[in-house]
Automatic annotation (TrEMBL):
Residues 1-20 form the signal peptide. It comes from the Bacteria. Residues 23-139 form the TNase-like domain. InterPro entries: SNase_OB-fold_sf, Staphylococal_nuclease_OB-fold. This is Thermonuclease family protein. It holds the Pfam family SNase. Keywords: Signal. It comes from Kiloniella antarctica.
Amino acid sequence: MLKSLKLSLLVLLISAPALADGLAVPADVISVYDGDTFKANAHPWPGMTMNVSIRVNGVDTPEIRGKCQAEKDTAIAARDYVREVLGESVILKNVKRGKYAGRVVADVYLEDGRNLTELLIAAGLGRAYDGGKRSGWCD
């Protein structure tokens, strides 16, 4: 029963934009896959923890399994940068369902209030992204 309730609340959280837009969700970082994707335990309500994969909203970073060595090298640099700046906890805002099963898209804020998307772009490790066709990272 409790598992079913948790699943229902998660579905509500990621499928109801009006609710998700106004909600600041604290999350504990578990692991970082690349510059724009990481796993966390999110805490949308007191006493509730949900393990989710998070795609950082508004930025595209190179892929670890990129098409050229330059893309792969920059992807590793972006991943390492994110591992360094994220710390242990973040705040997720504007949480929405992602294109891929089990993943959400969210604005990610560090504990000090800085926006991860803005940091990645300013560091030259990511590009602004609106969810459309991505540009390549290889010349």
